[in-house]
C-alpha cells in the first residue's frame, strides 16, 4: 500500500452507516474513496425490502432512528437534499401496562413528566438538562475518547449513567409505571439491567426522544443509505456491490483500508499482517446476545388496548421493570424467556408509503441467546396480544429471522448480535481492544470503523467519522 502504487486514497470494506460515514468524511477532503460491499445491495443495517408481500416495505434491521437524527455528524450532512426525509410519530415511544394504562414519552419533557404522577419532578429533574443540552451532550457521549468538551453536562450524564438501570430507576422513581418506562429504553443496550452503566443507554435514548425525537426514515431505512451514497457520489466517491473481501488481496491498492467489519472478520481477512497479540485480542472479543425478529403485513393497524399506543412509533412490551430485567438476564445467560422484552415499531401508521392503502407493516424483535435457532414467533405474538387483543386477526402474512438468518444476511451480526459486540463496561470503552486510539489497527494502512469501536452500536455514523479522522491525521497529515 505504498503511496506511489495506490489506485485509491482509501478503500472502505462494508457499506453500513459507519462505512459510508467514513467514506464521506474522507471524500470531503478531496480523497479518492472506494466502498466495497459483499452483498447485492448496500446499507448493512439500513436496508428495506418486501419481506412479506409485494408493496409492503419492511426494514430488515434498524427501523427507528433517534441517534441518526441526533448524530453530531449525520446531522451536518446535506442528506435532505439527497432525498432523506424524517417522519416523526405523535409520540416517540410508549410502554403499555397490564392494567390498560401506558407510560408514554412525548417530545416535551414537561408533558411526559406530568403524566407520571408522583414521579413528575424526578423525571423532569433527570431529563430536562440532558435533553436541553443534547447537542453538547451527544458530541461528548458519541465522541471519541478524550477530555469532554462540555464537562458540566457530560459529568451530570456520567454520574447517573454509571449506575445500573435497576439502581438508577429505584433511586429516582417511586412508581412501577415510571420504572417500566425507563427499563424499555435501557433494555436497548441488550445488557442485564443490573449491570453497571446500563443506565447510560436509558438516559441517552430517553433524552434523545425529547431532544430530537425517534423518527422513521420516509420510505424505509434504505432511504438513509440512498441519501448517504448520493452525497458520497457527489463528492466523487464510489460504491461497488457484490465485492466480497476474503483476504487483503481482494482490496485494490490504496493508502488506507478501513474495515466496517467486526473483529472476527478482520482477524481472518488481515491475519498475516496482524501482530499475534492483537489478533488474539480480536479473536477473544466478546459478542452479545442475538435477536429474533418478525415482520408482519397487517390488514389494519395494531389494535392496542391503550389508545395512546396507537400514536407511538415505537412500543416497548414487557410490563414491569422486573419482567424486562428477567428476560434480558435470561438471554445473557443463554436462556429463552417465555415473556421477553419485545421492541416493536409501527412505521406505516405515520408513513403511508410503506404499505398499500389501508394496510400496514409491523416490526418487532426480542433478545435471545447468541446463535439461538429457537422459533420465538408464538412467544412474541403472545406478548403483543397481551397488550393488543385481536392482533393475530390482523395478520396477512409474516417473515421471521433467527440469529443464524441475521448473520447470513449480514456477517457483522455474529451470533445475531446487532451491536457489533457486547456493550458491557470493558467493551463500552475498549472496543475492540483497550487503547487510546482504537480505530488504528497495528499494521500499515489498516483501520477499523465499525460499531465494534466507540461509541458502539446505533445508526449514527460516529465510529466511521472517528476512524476517518484518524486516517486523515495519520496518512494524509490533516489534523
From TrEMBL:
Give the source's domain of life in one word: Bacteria
List, alphabetically, the SUPFAM superfamilies matched: FAD/NAD(P)-binding domain (SSF51905)
TM ranges = none
Tell me any Pfam family this protein matches.
NAD_binding_8
What name does this protein carry? Phytoene dehydrogenase-related protein
Amino acid at each position: 500500500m505504498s503511496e506511489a502504487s495506490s489506485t485509491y486514497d482509501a478503500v472502505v470494506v462494508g457499506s453500513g452507516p459507519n462505512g459510508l460515514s467514513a467514506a464521506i468524511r474522507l471524500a470531503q477532503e478531496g480523497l479518492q474513496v472506494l466502498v466495497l460491499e459483499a452483498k447485492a445491495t448496500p446499507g448493512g443495517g439500513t436496508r428495506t425490502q418486501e419481506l412479506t408481500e409485494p408493496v409492503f416495505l419492511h426494514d430488515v434491521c434498524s427501523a427507528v432512528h433517534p441517534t441518526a437524527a441526533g448524530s453530531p455528524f449525520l446531522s451536518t450532512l446535506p442528506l435532505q437534499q439527497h432525498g432523506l426525509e424524517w417522519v416523526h410519530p405523535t409520540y416517540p415511544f410508549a410502554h403499555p401496562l397490564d392494567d390498560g394504562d401506558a407510560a408514554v414519552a412525548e417530545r416535551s419533557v414537561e408533558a411526559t413528566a406530568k403524566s407520571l404522577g408522583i414521579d413528575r419532578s424526578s423525571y423532569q429533574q433527570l431529563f430536562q438538562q440532558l435533553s436541553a443540552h443534547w447537542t453538547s451532550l451527544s458530541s461528548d457521549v458519541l465522541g471519541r475518547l478524550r477530555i469532554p468538551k462540555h464537562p458540566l453536562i457530560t459529568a451530570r450524564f456520567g454520574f447517573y449513567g454509571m449506575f445500573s438501570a435497576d439502581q438508577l430507576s429505584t433511586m429516582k422513581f417511586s412508581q412501577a409505571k415510571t420504572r417500566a418506562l425507563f427499563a424499555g429504553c435501557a433494555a436497548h443496550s441488550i445488557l442485564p439491567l443490573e449491570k453497571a452503566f446500563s443506565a447510560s443507554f436509558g438516559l441517552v435514548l430517553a433524552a434523545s426522544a425529547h431532544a430530537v425525537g425517534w423518527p422513521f426514515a420516509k420510505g424505509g431505512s434504505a432511504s438513509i443509505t440512498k441519501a448517504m451514497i448520493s452525497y458520497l457520489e457527489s463528492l466523487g466517491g464510489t460504491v461497488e456491490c457484490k465485492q466480497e473481501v476474503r483476504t487483503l488481496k481482494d482490496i485494490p491498492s490504496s493508502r488506507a483500508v478501513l474495515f466496517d467489519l467486526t473483529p472476527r472478520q478482520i482477524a481472518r481477512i488481515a491475519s498475516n499482517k496482524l501482530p499475534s497479540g492483537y489478533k488474539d485480542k480480536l479473536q477473544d472479543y466478546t459478542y452479545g446476545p442475538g435477536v429474533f425478529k418478525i415482520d408482519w403485513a397487517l390488514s389494519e393497524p395494531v389494535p392496542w388496548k391503550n389508545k395512546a399506543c396507537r400514536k407511538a412509533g415505537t412500543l416497548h412490551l414487557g410490563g414491569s421493570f422486573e419482567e424486562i430485567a428477567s428476560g434480558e438476564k435470561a438471554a445473557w445467560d443463554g436462556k429463552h424467556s417465555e415473556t421477553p422484552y419485545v421492541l416493536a415499531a409501527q412505521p406505516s401508521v405515520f408513513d403511508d408509503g410503506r404499505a398499500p392503502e389501508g394496510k400496514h407493516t409491523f416490526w418487532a424483535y426480542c433478545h435471545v441467546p447468541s446463535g439461538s435457532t429457537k422459533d420465538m414467533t408464538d412467544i412474541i405474538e403472545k406478548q403483543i396480544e397481551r397488550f393488543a387483543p385481536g392482533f393475530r386477526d390482523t395478520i396477512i402474512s409474516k417473515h421471521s429471522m433467527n440469529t443464524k438468518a441475521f448473520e447470513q444476511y449480514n456477517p457483522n451480526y455474529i451470533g445475531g448480535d446487532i451491536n457489533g459486540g457486547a456493550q458491557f463496561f470493558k467493551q463500552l470503552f475498549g472496543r475492540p481492544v483497550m487503547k487510546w486510539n482504537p480505530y488504528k489497527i497495528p499494521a500499515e494502512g489498516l483501520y477499523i470503523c465499525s460499531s465494534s469501536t466507540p461509541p458502539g452500536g446505533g445508526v449514527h455514523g460516529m465510529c466511521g467519522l472517528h476512524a476517518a479522522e484518524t486516517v486523515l491525521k495519520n496518512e494524509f497529515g490533516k489534523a
